[in-house]
Design goal:
Number of strands: 14
Strand content: 25-35%
Oligomer: single chain
Distance between the termini: 35 Å
Order of helices and strands: HHEHHEEEEEEEEEEEEE
Shape: globular
Number of helices: 4
Structural class: alpha+beta
Helix content: 10-25%
Amino acid sequence: MKKPLAQLESQMESLVEGILADQLQPPDITVRLVRALEDSATGGRLPVTHYLVRLNTADAERLLGGRPALADELADALVQAAREAHYTLPRRPEIVILPGDDVKPRQVVVTPDVNQADTSATQGLTPLPHVRRQPAPTMAAFVIVNGKRTVPLDQAIMNIGRRRDNQIILDDITVSRSHAQLRLRFGKYMVYDLGSHSGTLVNGRRIQECVLEPGDVITLGHVQLIYGEGTVSQVPAVE
């Protein structure tokens, strides 16, 4: 059975027929909207339901020219993601797409508009019982650092970098102080680059964000992390 995020991305593929693979695609926007929704719901708060999506002017014109109802379809995808994550939405999400020449091609800037929040309106959406944080994974997930140290992933969000308040501290000058983040989403960990100096690679490919699969090699500067999953008894005892 597909994971909810994979299902969501599959459904969004219909929006990109005829669009070249090296161009911005609606699933790229969806993933960032879902992340913004998750962030807005931390601490038991009701999620924000109004989002400003800033795109490069050429990207916006191309996407909206072929799909005028794109904002509504993105809102539908966000409703589905919220239901899968058991978030209560006080109203149907509203997505406003704003073109701008100050945004780079393929870049997506999502800003929750808290001033537009309406906690009383439902607009046809039946609220779910509660808002909750992402649970811990049912399987044991871990990373092996440079083949020498195993770090269990026991939190939904784990920051990686040289700074001492990171959950995974990498004492290497080629690693940024706040380099990357591992985030649990719908039962799968994703890795995000946090604007690091040297970038984040998965299996040799530079990424901004990526769903991880067992055996994937994450490269941060000169440091390699191998991502794995399994039962607790299967986590390698590497010291």
